[in-house]
Amino acid sequence: MNICIIPARGGSKRIPRKNIKKFAGKPMIEWSISAAINADCFDRIIVSTDDSEISKLAKSSGAEVPFIRPQSISEDYTPTGVVVKHALEWLELSDLSNTNVCCLYATAPFVTSNDINQSLSILNPNVCDFVLPVTSYAFPIQRALIIDEKTNLLEMREPDEFSSRSQDLKESFHDAGQFCWGLAEAWISGDTPFKRKTLPYNLPRFRVQDIDTNEDWKKAELLHKALYA
Question: What CATH number is given to the structural domain containing 61?
Answer without folding.
Answer: 3.90.550.10
